[in-house]
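ARCHIVE CARD
Drawer: 12
Card no.: 0347
Subject: one protein chain, sequence and derived structure
Cross-reference: see card 0346
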Amino acid sequence: GSGIRGPATSMLLMESSPHRTKGRNFMVAERVLPSIPPALTVFLGSLYYESGQFDYLVGIGLIGFVVASIILAVGTVETIDDSNHDTSRQKISLIRPDAFISLLVLAFILDGVSSKGLSWYIPIYLEEQGTVFYGLLISISTLIIAFFGLLSGCIVDRYGGPSVLVPAWLLLSLVVFLFGMTTEASQLLVLYCVWVSLDTVDTSVPPVLISNHYSSSQCATWMG
């Protein structure tokens, strides 16, 4: 589902945004606004989990899913006119990658290997701190993501993707190293908040660079 949705929504946001605010608008839609509701509910979920009230936990999650489904079903309007739309099967033409997209893909593959390889381990690493601490950490860090998501989008717009990406990744690697060297709760909380704030910098870079580098007919393909 994310694979189908991602390229389309990313390029729609790019094409509907002025050149100077592409990164900011993308981060508002993808990180800032979606981060606020989970920040309010994650800690509540950890309290229910800690007290063994799994039925409430699942019930609240199910209600959220149903409400979101209704909003999407009722609140969205089809913009394609079927009467004028050619529904015949269209051949998808493959285009050859160039040096730019190859380098971009390689960079984010390496970033994904490190970030995904570490993120799954965090709940296990924090196991001794307890479920409530983990819920508090995720709740606070999600609010941090909402704030720094907006800030990082503005920074990418102002200075460009490559100019901010390299120093952000270098600093991020240092923060992740320090996170793994401590077990003190307050330090873990602070370092993790710095970790996720730096991790927002690279989110808007691929769609912005791709939309600036390729024609609109190819952007979604390369983003996918």
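Annotation on reverse: The mean pLDDT is 85. The radius of gyration is 20 Å.
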